[in-house]
Amino acid sequence: MNLFTQIEDPTDLDRIRDVISQSERPEALVPLGIRTLEISEVASDHAAQSLLALLPQDGGRKRVALLVDATPIFKGSVNLKESVAAQLNQHFDVETVVLGDSHHLYADDAALDAATAALAGLDGVVSVGSGTISDIAKVASNRAGNLPYVMVQTAASVDGYTDNVSVVLKSGAKRTIDSRWPDVVLADTEVITSAPLELNTSGFGELLSLFTAPADWWLAFQVGTDQTFHSTPRDLLLTFAGNPGEWGAGISDGNRAAVEQLTKVLAIRGIGTGIAGTTACLSGMEHLISHMLDMFAAANGHETGLHGKQVGVASVVTASAWEYLLDQIRAGRTIDPGKRQDLEAVVTAAFAEVDPSGALGAECWRDFSKKQAALAASNLNLADFVSSAEALEQQLGDTLPNATDLAKGLNLAGAAYSFRQLGEWVTPEVWRWAVTNCLYMRNRVTIVDLLAELGWWTESDIDAVLARVEELTSAGAFAEAVEHV
Question: What is the rounded radius of gyration, in angstroms, for the C-alpha atoms of the chain?
């Protein structure tokens, strides 16, 4: 029984904790560490009071950091960062730390080290901004002794605000590392609603991975490479997602209710990831494709695309890959992994496209080789596993993604649904490179690994999957309104 249906307000974290404790195998989940989650039009006004509540009241004036990037953010006509600084100055000695420049901020070693050094000896930290600055703040505040940390969220473009991990760059590759839960998350919906439309439609794209990644997570559990699969995070996610096909249309219109719903769903996504103890519950093949595009952009001096925007487009590919698998099973296709290649050479060659030095290829091979070893040791009988499309569909149930619905949902929300909407540098060749080689970049089993193990990820198979996606996202493909996502 899904007890989350009893909760009306997803920001009631005590109630969520209570339901988790009553669900199946709660001991296998990570305790939810966020103390307060506020999603409102006045949330950013409570930054100073929230931090005060976290610090000991011993009469001394505390020293705190305001961690920001160089991008101006406004709430109406008010500079939000200056407003939060003014709040804090009433109660604390404030050191404002600006990371990056007006064009770029990456969560790389340089930024993480600079932020950590800036927090040394302080009593608390507040960050104001979107995903990258929040990821950096989580890592830095953890390294600085788990400082009391208040996050002011200013965009609904990703779900990483409310989890306990951070996405960072390691040798040019995106990696998810443990960091911490923020103590308080203040999501200001007035600021978020007025954010550039592309940020919110990107958030809509991000949330759609909850309709694709759980299938990959379940697959990894069946293969035996990931024992973390748990029904509670999945139920939490699906309960509060609602029907994006109904409320998603308001995103492109800047509808405040729709943006608030988007912010809530993304917050619940982050919590789901955190309690699961793995990003695998919401990060499958669609995230791998997005990470591949980020690598290409960084290597070639292109502006890195919005993560959620790329994930949304890639979710259609992931769902299409699952549908392709089922079609091949129905057609009675023979399992034929073929002659085993020198996979290290294959991986190295794939990433030489973006790093001729070989450092990125070596980093990805280290991760991919672990996955290959686990797959080789798996007790799963592939022939039995793919013997019946009907049986596989029944096991997946509601977890099985639907590519048509995802594509229509993206279109309805005014979000990107085709790689052609991701930027001029995402050419058909770059897109194909990302889709073809995404399985090589990290130690995570997804549908593309299964297809490769079956021998069903050849050039012609890739052609077929991409042709499916092209048909779904071509002009005229959205003649009928989506009824559900």
Answer: 22
Query: What is the residue whose two structure tokens read 């901004």?
Result: 129
Give the residues across from 187 on adjacent strands: 39, 153
CA pair distance 439, 289, nearest whole angstrom: 9
- Torsion angles phi and psi, residue 100, rounded to 5: 75, -175
Query: What residues contact residue 186 under an 8 Å CB cut-off, 6+ apart?
Result: 38, 43, 44, 46, 47, 50, 150, 151, 152, 153
229: nearest Cα among 28, 6, 481, 16: 28
Find where tokens 């390691």 sit: 170
- The C-alpha angle 219, 224, 225, rounded to 5 degrees, equals 85
Q: How many helices (H) and strands (E) does the chain have?
A: 21, 10
Residues 310, 289 contacting (CB under 8 angstroms)? yes
Q: Any idea what the Cα angle at residue 143 is, between residues 139 and 149, rounded to 5°?
A: 65
In 433-475, at which residue ranges do the beta strands (DSSP E only) sit? none
Give the pLDDT score at 341. Answer: 72
Separation between Cα atoms, residue 361 and residue 344, nearest integer Å: 9
453 falls in which pLDDT band (50, 70, 90)?
Answer: very high
Cβ-contact 13, 34 below 8 angstroms: yes
Residue 35 burial by CB count (10 A; 0-12/13-18/19+): exposed, middle or buried? middle
Question: Can you tell me the distance from the alpha carbon of 164 to that of 150, in angstroms, rounded to the nearest whole number?
Answer: 14
Can you spell out the DSSP letters for 71-116?
S--EETTEEHHHHHHHHHHTTSEEEEEEES-SS----SHHHHHHHH
How far apart, in whole angstroms, are the C-alpha atoms of residue 239 and residue 234? 9
The tokens of 86 are what? 């003014």
Under a CB-based contact definition with an 8 Å cutoff, are residues 172 and 360 in contact? yes
Distance of CA 117 to the CA centre of its chain: 27
- Alpha-carbon gap, residue 244 to 261, rounded angstroms: 9
Which two three-digit tokens encode residue 28? Answer: 């296998």
What is the C-alpha separation between 117 and 119, in angstroms, rounded? Answer: 5
Contact 325/386 with Cβ under 8 angstroms? yes
Helix, strand, coil % in the chain, rounded to nearest 5: 55, 10, 35
Of residues 86, 96, 92, 85, the one with CA closest to residue 123:
92
Chain-centroid distance of CA 350 in Å reads 24
Encode pLDDT of 39-75 as tens digits: 999 999 999 999 999 999 887 899 999 999 999 999 9
The secondary structure element, H or E, covering residue 165 is strand 165-170
Q: What is the pLDDT of residues 355-364, one digit of tens each?
A: 999 999 999 9
